[in-house]
Structure formats: structure tokens, C-alpha cells
Q: What sequence folds into this?
């Protein structure tokens, strides 16, 4: 009987974490529309609604069974599919599921909320110029196939798990899987009109609604309570609360570090760098949030904050155009966080570092290859990018025939 | 002693659900102001603040005792009132309340958060033209009397409960009770100036802040975790988590179905249809969220999404003006969800369907009659609608002497 | 074993409350930017990000150990410091911490989220004219030293606790500590240009985004579920749920009372008074939320609502400029709430009232003295206020070189 109460408490925690991860989609939406131009707002929101709804349905139809196929323990599983459809859990399974951690239903929904995240990361990077239909097609395939296959390698008991790779809540399995696709997509898409001058010098295209962007970051931080806290997969008091402490301290340290470092470099109190530093700290702690001391977490955050500033500059240097900084935040800090598990915390060792490095590399190659395989045919057929005219006019009018702020006068830029 | 831990876990879940249902009021606010014009923003916010604050106080003073009067089991109770005031719970009652599901206080607050919802549904439909004082008067009477009386018939153990009517979380008792009043109110009020041309052809009046409207939908979806999840009235792991799964899948299916169906009809990627489809799916699953399989939930959502598109067109056809689509979402999908309990899921049978149909009809007749009884005298005395001049100028300046966006230049429309 | 399940449920509740208190920072941000002008938006957001991130880090480095130094029981402790750094909790401490209420980590994070609040209260009052660097310096010292020292007197087991002073969740220890600093700061800063005419008559400077301000209030209300609900320091079903009921009823009563009273005085449906009334009710109930009956809570809220209206008028009369009403809400209602513990509820007695009065006075003197000690040297050296030119231009361009709403045309005022 004891188990009933503990099971109930565990399941309550996991349901709350599920709700918080769901709420991250509002954070992503606000961040993306805030950092882009008013004329593409509806388009971004449409993509976000598409990703969360279709992502959940795809995960129900096949993704869950693809990601958790029941590899034999330690098996070097590379691809396995447990079948279509979310079968109702077997009789009696609910109470016993995951050692009393939560019910089968909770597991499905928690994992389903994660699935859509990878595509949302891409959505921000390709904003303001991708063709809606092309994005939707890509998102379906990436969320429905690539994300669950990679996830199965570690969380489904596949070969990455077998070789000792550690990724607590997904610095690699979620953030860099999304980040690699974002990188490939912005490479294939090219920069927005006006983003670089004739000599390739970057010109800032300021976001149109910084309050919403800042709100997005705070909502994402809140959501990370669930993203990391729920990845404990029970309400274990010590582990969940340690995880929340490391998560919050890394976020705080990342923000402060980014703000200070960018102030030193550019003599400016840059709010967007502060915001991206917070996100970088969050992504950076995600792989090892349950393994770190508070001091480790602060160090990981500080380094993530510096990485963000350099990463954004690097992307610019490469003449890539990433309106929301998704590659610096999710890919580069995702890699950093994964490697940090081998440097800081309870698992730190050279061996672990090399395993982490291998995991980063394997997932990177697979994600990049898949992204090309999916995006190149789309580019060759229906095309990736909207017409020049549509881009200038804005996707809201061009693709949706609507204006996001009908009553307000706008500046042109 | 076991019961203490389980009771505590149950109560924690119910308190969280209460907080989430409270938060839905931000969702409603954002949705309503986002889909209407900038010049009526303060007025809408004032109404929302009024509804949540006065609604809670009314529920404390009398509504709770009206809704849960303690009918004898199975009795054909039609009207009973347990007295004024929220008496402190009897000694020892807290721990034992609702079979250890939660405390008496939690019960009061959870139910109180529901009560205000019905009036909020009306608020959106009558936006941009109703007189503030008339709305406030109507809301007081509807939330204070009509909602709890109808609620008592089922959730208070009255005659609808006795005849086997099933409404898990309120497709009928909350959403269609609000929706019927919205329908009567917009019929009596008439359309906003400029909403239909001389020949009765509908002209779109675009909302002024789509990011907030979209945020409203996502916040409402989040709130539904509590609205449906809390309606289990305990943290029972299997039932709560199944309920969250069916709720989220219906929402996702509703959105996708609405987006696809409206795209087929109107050749347009319509964000507001996508949003309303999500809401329609949520309302549709609400009556039977604990009775459905995931597949049932997806079907209910798909049908709700189609219904939303047709419903919005029907309201237009009838030359009714519902700025936020409240009638299509809350009334029509509320009816659909209630009937769906007789078609899908564990209770499905012809008998159940007929009982559901009877419940829908009885509640509908009562709600419509009450709405006329309350609104006609208001119309005849202080009037329902603001002057033409005030409507053109906007209610913010006319009724509140304030401007919601003081620093921004506006377009006229 | 029983204890494991109960401990887990308690800890889950406390983690959720921590998340909700964190989320209040979005509420404060929205409230502050909504009630000020568009040209200072980025500056306000930057301050908010600064306060939450640096506040958490300072609390980790020293604040927590300063606030909870382990005074001997009942000792008249006035200053004690447990040392630098958040030491990992001693072995076995987690499970036993706070009588199984929650883990040491949860405690740290919950208290850390509170710490930043005091500085955030100041941030709103000094908005639109304070120099960023001066604010940051002040915030570091006030959050890092003054707040934890005052907190230790009661919550750390110091002399205020020894003398029987009661402050459940911080009407005094959080809200008036912040409010006193806000009062001193706006006195030293002076009013914004254009806020009073040559004869000292107040001129309204309307906020630029009322939807965000209103959202801020609703988010703060939501956050108060955690602020007060978590201050029970366990998930005790009766106490937590009673606390939520009194909190919500006081908020509702405060809002309604403020709306009615301001309508009587000024013949206007004033949304910002409604909003501030809600906040005043929340601050007012905070000191005794676990001691009051629902009826007491409503009375405390009603009085808070009246106080808000009078308080805002008083601040104006004194020619002080508080753009968001922080002094009326946090200081005056904080005092009211603290005194109310001696008037209403289970502790009401003349003795208790006098103890409460003494506590208010002691904390007030200390906070005011500290504020002067910190602010006067800053004023004398780097200066508190931006140049006139920068103020007119707006701090966003002057201090950050950015525009919060790049695409929108603005009115000048």
C-alpha cells in the first residue's frame, strides 16, 4: 500500500513536468516572434502550432514505439520499431510501470512533449524566409523519424546507452539534434534579404517585440523545471531538487556571464545576449543536471555564457543567418553540455569525456546526414525558400493573408 | 498513516489543478483582446478582472452552497440551497473529505475557479459593444445563480446525475452553459458596426494582437491540464494521466483538423482556425476525457475541428457577430463533446446517447430561458449596448478614459 | 517507509511553489514594462534579468548562509553568518531536513527565489530614470546583505522570532523591505520629467502596454499560490489549501474594493486601480494567510483595496513619483497585512498587535537606514539618475542602443 502513495506522488510530479514542457512551446513562440520582424509573426505562430499538434499526433502514431522499442538490455540496437499506434498499456502495467515511477500514459505524454522540441528549434533558425509547406514536410519527417531513432539509441536502451554515453535530459538527444538540423537548414536556405551587405558584413535586423522575447526566455526557464526535473523519471526528492538547483544556477550564471562578456567585447548592455546566455546555461546543464554540484553548475553556466557570445559571432562570420541564435544556443551549448559531463561532476573522467565526444560526433553525423537527405529533395522539388517578393512583403500577408497587428502602424525595414 | 501520504499527494494535485484553472483566465483575456480591436482592450481586461474576482467572491458567499447542497443520493433534486456563506468545514472534515481526495478548502477553490469560466465565455462573444455596467450585472446573476443551479443538477447530485447523464469536466455544465448565454447575448446585442455590409455579407474585423491571441490558446491548453486533470477529483495515477493524454490528443487533432479543413474550403493557412480548432478539441473531449482511448480522443478532436469551421460559417450566415468564436467553440463543441460520450468510449450506447441528448436539451432550454430573463430587463432599462459614438471611438476611451497602448500610433478601422 | 511517500509529496509541492515564485519575475517584468513608456522597456527587462540571475547567484554564494545561520532557538540573534558558499548538505541531511518537509536543495532554491523579489520591487519604482549601473550596484548590496539580514531576524530564528513577531510569508520581510527601499530611492531620485507640472500638480504618464501589465498581475496572482502556499513549508493539506483560499479571496476582495472605491472617488472604471487592488490584497494577506478565515481574508482584502487608492493619492500628494505604485502596494499594504495579524484571525490580540507594530517599526528603520547608507554614496559618486537628455530619449537607446519594438511607429510623450 505504501507504494500507492509514493507512486501517486511520483506520477503527480511527472504530470506537472509534462505540463511545464508543454508550456515551453509558448516560450519558443514568444522568443521567435519577439526576435524577428512583425511581418512574419503569423507565419511563426502557425509553424509553432503545427509542430506541437502534429508532433504529438506523430508521436502517438509511431514515434513513441520507435523511440522505446524495448531493446534488450545493453544491446547495440540501432533501429527497431515496436509497431504502429499507441496501444493501450497492458493490463496492470500502469501501476507497475517504470518501477512505480509513473504510469504508461504519463510516460507517453512526457516523451511526446519532448519530441516536438527538436523541430521547434529549427523553426526559429529558418524563420522569415522558409516556405511553410516545405517546413511542415521537413518537420513531420524529422520529428516523426530522426528524433525518435536517435532517442532510441540512448533512452530506448540502444547502442549509445550500451557504450556508457550519458545525456540526462537531452543536451545532445534533443538540443543538438535540433541544432544540427537548424545549421543545415540555414546553410541551404541562405540569409534573409538585407542581413549581410554586399561585402558580407552582417547588418542587424532587430526583433520587433522584445518584451515577448524576454517573456519567452523566462517561460522557457520555467519549462526547464519540468524538462530537467522530469527527466529524473520519478519524484525522488534528492535528485529532483538537486536538478532544479543546478538548472537554475547554470541559467543564472550563463546569463550573467554572457552579459558581462558581451559588455567587455562590445561596450553595450545587450539584453538579447543576456537572454541567450540564460538559454545557453540551460542547454549546457541539461546533459548532466543530476550529476553536478552547485559549483559545477555555475562553472558550466559561465562557460556556456562565453560560448554563446563567441558562437553568435562565429555564425555571423560564416555568413549564416540565424535570427534567434538557435545554433549557438542549442547546438553549440548542447555540445558543450554533453562534453561537460566528462569534465565536471560525478562522472568526470577522460574515458567518459571521450565517450561523450564520440556520442556527440555520432549523433552529429547522423543528424546532419538526415537533414541533408530530407532537405535537398525538398529544395530540388517544391523549393525551400519563398519568393523574394513574398519575403519583402512578409510571410503573414504572402502565405496567410493576415496581419498580426492590424491596428498598428508599422515602420518599413 | 498510509492515508496521510496519499491524501497529501491527492491534495497537492488538486491544488495545482486549481492554479492551472485560475491561469486560464489569463488565457481567456489574451484570446479575447488579441482577436478584437485595440480600442476595446482595457474594457475587455476590466471585464476579465471583474469576472474572476467577483466570481470568486460570489461563489464564496452563496454559489458553492447552491451548487453542492447535499441532495440525497440519486434524488431528483432541482433546486436546493445549503445556506449563505462559506462556513468553515466541520471539525475533522478536512482530512476525510471526498474520501481523502482533497480538503474541503481545495474543493471550494477548485470549484470556484470553474464558476467564473461561464461568464468569461460570454465576455468574449459580446466584446466591443456591450455596456460595461450591463455586462457586470448579467455576469453577477449568471455566475451567482444560473451556473451553480445547473451544476447542482449533475455535480451536486441532482436529477441529471440521477438519470445517468455524464459530463466529466463540463462540456455541458460549463462550456455550453456559457455558450448558450453568449448566443442569446449576441442575438440581443446585434453585430458590431461594420461587421456586415448592407447586404448582410460578413466583413472581417481583424484582431489587433495575434501573438497574444495565440498565447491565450496555449495558456488555455495548459489550463486544461488542470480543468480536466483535476476533474478526476483525486490524483489517481491511471485516471489523471489517461485524462491528460486524451485531452492533449484531442486538442492536437482538433487544431490539425480545423487547419486542414479550412485550408480545403478557403485555400488559406488560417491561424485563427488552427487556434479555434485546438480549443474546439479541448471542449469536445471535456465531457468524456476519462472515458476515451487515445484513438477515440483523436476522432473526437478531428470531428470538433470540422465542426468549428462549419460553426463559425454558420454563425456568420445567421448574421450573428461573435468576435472570438465563442459560440462555435464553447456551445457547439460543448454539445458535440457531450453527445460523443454516447458514441465513443466506455459508456457508448444508444441509451447513453439519448440521455446525453436529453441533458444537452434540458440544460440548453434552462440556460436560454435564464439568459433571456436576465438580459431582456437589462436591455429594457439601462440598455445592453453602448452608443454608436462610443462604439466607434472605442470603449477604452468611452468607458475608461484610458488608452491600452499609449505610445503607439494606430490605424483607423 | 511511510515517511518516504509523505516526504516525496511534500517536496513535490515545495518544488512547484519554487517554480511559481520564480514565475513571479515574469509577472513583475510585465507589470513594470506595461505601466511605463515604450522607450524604457529594454532597460526594465535588463534590470529584471539582472535581479533574478544575480540574486540567485548571490544567494548561493552567501545570502542563504546569512539568512539561515542557525541561531540557537529563541536567541536574540541580530547578525550571524554561517559562511560562504552553498556547501553540499551534510550526509543524510536531505531526507531528514525540516522534519521531512523537503530537501535542503529545495529549501535553498525556494528561499533563493524569494530573495530577488525585494530588489524587483525597487526596480519598478525607480523605472525610467535610474542609471543602470547604479541600480545594479544597489541591488547587489540590498539583495546580498540587507534582505538576508532582516530575514534572519524572523525566519532564521533571530530576535524578531524570539519576541513573537508573526510574518507568515513576508508582508514585512519581503514586501515592506522592498517597499522601504523603493520609497527612499524615489525620494532621492526625484520625479520623472513631466510627471508634475510647475505647480506640483501630478500629470499622468500612461503606461504603454496595458495587456502586458494586466497579464503581469494575473501571473503574480498565480505566483502567489507558491509564495504563500509554499510558505507552509510542507504540503500539509489543511494549511496549504486554507492558505490558497485566503490568498485568492483577499486578492479578489482587494481588486473589487479598489475598483469600487476609486469609482466612487473619481467616477471612472480604472483598470490600473483594479489591478493594484488585487496586488494590495495579495500583499495584505501574506503575513497571516495561514491564520485567517475566509471572512477575515475578504475583510483584509477590502481594506487593502481602499488603502491602495488612498496610498497612490498620498504618494502623488508628496510629489513622489512611483510609476508602478510599488510603494502603495508593497510598503503600505505590507504594513497593513502585518498589523492585520494582530487584528484578525487566530493570533488577534492587543499584545500581538503591538508586537507586529514593533516589528514593522524595527524593520522599517533598518531598511530605511540601509537604503540611505547604500544609495547616498552611489548618488555622490557615480550618480543615481541618467542625464536629462538620456531620460527624454529613453533609456533603451541611451543605455542599450536598442529599440524594444523596432517595427512600430511611436507617439512622442
A:
Amino acid at each position: 500500500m505504501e507504494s500507492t502513495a509514493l507512486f501517486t506522488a511520483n506520477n503527480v510530479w511527472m504530470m506537472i513536468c509534462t505540463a511545464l514542457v508543454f508550456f515551453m512551446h509558448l516560450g519558443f513562440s514568444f522568443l521567435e516572434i519577439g526576435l524577428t520582424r512583425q511581418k512574419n509573426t503569423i507565419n511563426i505562430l502557425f509553424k509553432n502550432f503545427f509542430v506541437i499538434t502534429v508532433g504529438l499526433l506523430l508521436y502517438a502514431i509511431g514515434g513513441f514505439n520507435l523511440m522505446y522499442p524495448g531493446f534488450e538490455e545493453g544491446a547495440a540496437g540501432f533501429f527497431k520499431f515496436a509497431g504502429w499506434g499507441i496501444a493501450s498499456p497492458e493490463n496492470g502495467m500502469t501501476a507497475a510501470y517504470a518501477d512505480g515511477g509513473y504510469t504508461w500514459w504519463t510516460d507517453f505524454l512526457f516523451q511526446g512533449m519532448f519530441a516536438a522540441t527538436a523541430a521547434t528549434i529549427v523553426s526559429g533558425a529558418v524563420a522569415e524566409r522558409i516556405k511553410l509547406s516545405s517546413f511542415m514536410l521537413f518537420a513531420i519527417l524529422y520529428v516523426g523519424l530522426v528524433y525518435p531513432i536517435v532517442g532510441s539509441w540512448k533512452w530506448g536502451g540502444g547502442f549509445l546507452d550500451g557504450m556508457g554515453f550519458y545525456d540526462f535530459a537531452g543536451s545532445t538527444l534533443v538540443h543538438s539534434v535540433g541544432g544540427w538540423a537548424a545549421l543545415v537548414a540555414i546553410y541551404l536556405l541562405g540569409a534573409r534579404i538585407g542581413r549581410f551587405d554586399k561585402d558580407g558584413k552582417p547588418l542587424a535586423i532587430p526583433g520587433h517585440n522584445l518584451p515577448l522575447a524576454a517573456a519567452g526566455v523566462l517561460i522557457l526557464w520555467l519549462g526547464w523545471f519540468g524538462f530537467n526535473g522530469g527527466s529524473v523519471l520519478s519524484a525522488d526528492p534528492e535528485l529532483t531538487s538537486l536538478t532544479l538547483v543546478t538548472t537554475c544556477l547554470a541559467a543564472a550564471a550563463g546569463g550573467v556571464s554572457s552579459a558581462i562578456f558581451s559588455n567587455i567585447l562590445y561596450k553595450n548592455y545587450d539584453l538579447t545576449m543576456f537572454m541567450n546566455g540564460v538559454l545557453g546555461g540551460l542547454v549546457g546543464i541539461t546533459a548532466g543536471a543530476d550529476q553536478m554540484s552547485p559549483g559545477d553548475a555555475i562553472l558550466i553556466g559561465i562557460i556556456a555564457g562565453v560560448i554563446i557570445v563567441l558562437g553568435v559571432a562565429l555564425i555571423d562570420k560564416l555568413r549564416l543567418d540565424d535570427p534567434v541564435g538557435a545554433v549557438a544556443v542549442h547546438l553549440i551549448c548542447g555540445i558543450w553540455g554533453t562534453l561537460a559531463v566528462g569534465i565536471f561532476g560525478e562522472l568526470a573522467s577522460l574515458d567518459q569525456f571521450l565517450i561523450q565526444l564520440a556520442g556527440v560526433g555520432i549523433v552529429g553525423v547522423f543528424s546532419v546526414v538526415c537533414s541533408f537527405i530530407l532537405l535537398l529533395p525538398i529544395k530540388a522539388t517544391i523549393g525551400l525558400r519563398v519568393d523574394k517578393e513574398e519575403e519583402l512583403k512578409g510571410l503573414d500577408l504572402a502565405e496567410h493573408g493576415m496581419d498580426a497587428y492590424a491596428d498598428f502602424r508599422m515602420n518599413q525595414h
